[in-house]
Structures are given as structure tokens and as C-alpha cells.
Write a structure and sequence with these properties.
- The chain is an alpha+beta fold.
- The chain has 2 domains: 72 residues, no CATH class; 107 residues, SH3 type barrels.
- The chain is globular.
Length: 180
């Protein structure tokens, strides 16, 4: 057997010239483009008045002005750990879900992504409750403290992520779901 067949891809000297170029220099431009797309999406869902109110509520000036004070932002209604595998649920409307999100489109650290919006108003069965996950980037095992579930047949289509074809489950907070 020749030595070339035994080597792995990391042993080839010429692999550096063949690999794709480093695209990290375009990262600020991608972030700018993502922010534009996210704002257009919010404008479509919330309307002009809702979008403007949301932008003012989470602006830096407002946060500095209200520093130390608790705002009266709408809190999600805590459903508790009531959803079990096999339960039938309806995903709340996009407006109801947006009311639970903070300025970064997150509810207790979990982001509501644009590809999840197409499931709003539809009914699904709970596939599984999430108690622990492994963070792929670090390999860390994390406990999930806020009630979160996976829904049957609800997968990411990857259109909002550059055509990704992994078909990942969407993580759904129970505050975004209504038990039927």
C-alpha cells in the first residue's frame, strides 16, 4: 500500500492552497445584512406602529434612562412544565410570540428564528421535552431550566441560514405554545 493512501486529509502539504478562502473578513457585512432582514421581518409581522414601539422600548437611550428600574415589558405567561410527549399544541401567532421576546429576539436565551414563523397558528404533537442539550461548538452538556419542547414534523428548512440542509429541530418554549 502506498504512503499517499494512508495519509489523512490533514497530512497533505498542498491542502492549504486548495482549501477555500477565509471569509471572515465579510462577517461585518453579513451581520449588517442580517440586521436589515430581521428588521424587515419585524416590520412585516408587527406593522409600523408595533415595530416603532418595539424599537423604542429596546433602544440604548431607553435602557440608559430606565437603568435600575424594572420595565413593564409584557412577560410571557408561564405555562409550567405541563406539556408532555404526545400532547397536541397550537403554536401561538407571531404577534403573541413577539410580545414575549426581548430586544435580541430571545425568550430566556432561546431565539425565535424567522424559519419558525411559518409554523405559527398550526397544530402539532409534542415529540419530546428538552432537559439537556450538548452545545456543538464546545461539547458542553447544558441543562435547560425553562420548559422547552420539540414538535413532531417541525424542522428548519435552512433558507434563513444560507441553504443549510441539516433539518434541525426547532426548540420551542412552552410560552410560545397553547395546549389544545
Amino acid at each position: 500500500m502506498s504512503k499517499n493512501l494512508e495519509k489523512c486529509q490533514y497530512c497533505y502539504d498542498g491542502l492549504v492552497e486548495v482549501s477555500s478562502p477565509d471569509t471572515r473578513s465579510a462577517l461585518p457585512l453579513r451581520r449588517y445584512w442580517w440586521n436589515i432582514k430581521r428588521n424587515v421581518w419585524h416590520l412585516r409581522v408587527l406593522g409600523l406602529i408595533g415595530f416603532t414601539t418595539r424599537r423604542l422600548r429596546y433602544s440604548r437611550v431607553t435602557r440608559l434612562f430606565l437603568k435600575g428600574k424594572r420595565g413593564s415589558a409584557s412577560k410571557p405567561s408561564r405555562v409550567g412544565s405541563s406539556l408532555l410527549p404526545g400532547d397536541l399544541v397550537e403554536v401561538r401567532s407571531a404577534r403573541e410570540i413577539f410580545a414575549t421576546l426581548n430586544g435580541e429576539d430571545k425568550l430566556k436565551g432561546l431565539r425565535f428564528n424567522p424559519e419558525m414563523a411559518k409554523f405559527c397558528g398550526k397544530r402539532f404533537r409534542v415529540y419530546k421535552r428538552l432537559d439537556k442539550i450538548i452545545v456543538e461548538t464546545t461539547g458542553e452538556l447544558r441543562n435547560i431550566r425553562t420548559p422547552t419542547v420539540l414538535l413532531e414534523g417541525v424542522f428548519c428548512d435552512g433558507k434563513a441560514h444560507g441553504g443549510c440542509d441539516r433539518s434541525c429541530f426547532g426548540f420551542w418554549r412552552e410560552a410560545w405554545l397553547k395546549k389544545v
